[in-house]
Amino acid sequence: MKAKLFQEVKVAIVLLCCVLPTMLQAQDMAFGGMEVTKSNCNNLITAFKDHYTQIGIWGGAFCKASGSVTYDFSTNTLTLNEANITLTVNPSSIDGVVFNVRLDKLTVNLIGHNVINSGTAAFHQSRNASSGKDPELIFTGSGTLKINNKGTRNSRYAGINLYTDGKMVVNCKELNVFSNWGIAIGAVFQYNSYDRSTLSVGNNSALIAKARGGSIAQINNFSMGSNCLFHKPQNAYFDYRKKAICDALGQVITDEVVCFL
């Protein structure tokens, strides 16, 4: 009897060891509230469709998607290939966050022209509690991404919502972020900050941002490649005191900010 019980316990432990790593990995990334796992990571659009078909809102004004979205666990790379995703606020079922990220580092590889219509954050960055490191979000690739944060006054986050001490790097061809309310890119959190949040734009990249609460705001540090300039508006600059891109009069810019070579 004891031998049989011991054998059953061994089997249970082995099964737990096999399942637990997958569970932990899934908790590090969510796509529209749906956990990203090794079983669905190669075809996230289909998994997204199946998930919201079950909820009963797939294909309507709130929720639809096309193109290709995949995630590589070995490199922590999310690839958007001609992806067009809509997940906007429907108070009875979803909050509109598209990609909820709890990784030390996520690389977003862009292929072709991609669009995300969100109800709040298209990308929401959090610190991984296991590592405690400042998270990093990197946009790369030969493609472009247009983010439309259609959230209202009650929208909780920026279009790209960084962790309070998170880092973001733009190394893709073009990243264009619009927020209907609040800010386009920044750290909208109520956690204590150690002034480490950073937004960097590479030499061969274009960054465009616009939001009525601040186009690029609540960022501690900002840098551009040596050949990059603010093309719009003229005389724009990063104000370290206001932690935002400001105009020549020192006002936080709420109109379109454009920086590239």
Question: Can you walk me through this structure?
Answer:
With 261 residues, this protein is mostly beta strands. The protein has one domain (2-260). The chain is 15% helix and 40% strand. The protein is built from 2 helices and 19 strands. The protein has helices at residues 2-27, 44-55; strands at 29-31, 34-35, 63-72, 77-87, 99-101, 105-111, 113-118, 123-125, 136-149, 160-161, 167-179, 185-186, 198-201, 206-211, 221-224, 229-232, 237-239, 244-246, 257-260. The strands form 3 sheets. Strands 3, 4, 6, 7, 9, 11, 13, 14, 15, 16 and 19 form an 11-stranded mixed sheet that branches. The protein is globular, with a radius of gyration of 20 Å. The chain starts with a helix and ends with a strand.
Short account of what is shown:
This protein has helices at 2-27, 44-55, and strands spanning 29-31, 34-35, 63-72, 77-87, 99-101, 105-111, 113-118, 123-125, 136-149, 160-161, 167-179, 185-186, 198-201, 206-211, 221-224, 229-232, 237-239, 244-246, 257-260. It has 261 residues and is mainly β. It has one domain.
Kindly name the structural category: mainly beta
Q: SSE string, helix = H, strand = E?
A: HEEHEEEEEEEEEEEEEEEEE
Q: Indicate the proportion of strand residues.
A: 35-45%
Oligomer: single chain
Number of helices: 2
Keywords: Signal
Search tags:
six-stranded mixed beta sheet, signal, mainly beta, 40% strand, 19 strands, eleven-stranded mixed beta sheet, 261 residues, 2 helices, globular
